[in-house]
Amino acid sequence: MPLTLRQPWHARPNPRPQRLILSLLVRDEADIIEAQLRFHLQAGVDFIVATDNGSTDGTVEILEQYARQGALHLIHEAGQDYAQAHWVTRMAHLAWNHFGADWLILSDADEFWTPRTGDLKRAIADATTPVLACRPVNMMPVLHSDPCVASSFADMEFAAIVAPRRAKVKRMADLIDAPLNGALPHPWIIETPKPKVMAAAHIILEVEQGNHAVKTTKRTACATCADVVLRHYPIRSYQQFERKVMNGGSAYACNRYLPPGIGWHWRRWYKLYQRGELQAEFERQVIRSSAELQHWRAAGVVAEVGQPQRC
Question: Whole-prediction pTM value?
C-alpha cells in the first residue's frame, strides 16, 4: 500500500497539482519514444518513471539519456510474461513514495496525452474526482512509401479515427481465432478503444492490466476528462508492427494468470504471425492511397489528417 506521510494534493491550500509524473512501460519503441518523452515534458509533466522490458532496438539508450538529465527514473525489468499490472503498480508506488507525485498519468510509449488548452496540470486542475478517464483516439497511418521501412515518426501522417466501431461476438475466443475476413468486419485500429486513466497518486493501490482502471485506498468515482485528448499511435510501419506483435504476443502466450480476453488482439496477431498472415493484417490497419483515404472519410470514420501532435 502506498505510504501517506505527505499531505495529499487535494488537502493543500492551493489544490492545483504541483507535481505531475508520468509512468511508462516500454519495449522496443525507439522510433517514437523520444518524441513521446519530449512532448510530455513540454506539456506539463515534471518527471517520468519508466520501466524498460528488455528493449534491444536503442530504446534503452534514449531512456538513459533522459535519466542522466534528471528527467527520468529508469527500471530494468527482465520478466517475459508481460505482468504489466504488477510493473505499473510498482511505478505508481515509486512515484508517490519517492518522487513526490501529486497526480500520475499511466501511459504507454505510443500514447500522447494532449491538453486541449494550456498544459496538462491546468487540464486536471478542476478535477472533481481523484481518477480521470480518457478515451484514446486511434491514429491510423497514412503511408506514402514502403510500409516495411520505419519512417521518422515526426514526419509521418496519421488520420484520427473519429467514428470507431465495435465487433459483435459472443465469445472473445471468436475474435482471437478469427481469420482475416472472419469475425472482425473492420480493421482492429477502428475498434472502439477502452478508456485509459490518470489518478491522484496517493490513492492508487493497484493498476489494472492495460492502465484501464485503478484500485484505490477507498471507494471513489471516476470522471471523464474532456480537457485531454489521448492520441494513440499503435501502428507506424510493418517493421515496428511485426516486432511489437512478436514481443507482445509471445509475452501473453507465456502469461498463465490473465484470461484470454485480456490482450485478445495481441493473441490474435501472434497467431497470424505464426501462420505467415501478419503482413495482410497490417495492410488492413493503414491507409495506402488517396482512394482509401477518401473511402474512410466518406464513411465518416477518419478525419484530421496530419503529422503527429506537437506541444
Answer: 0.87
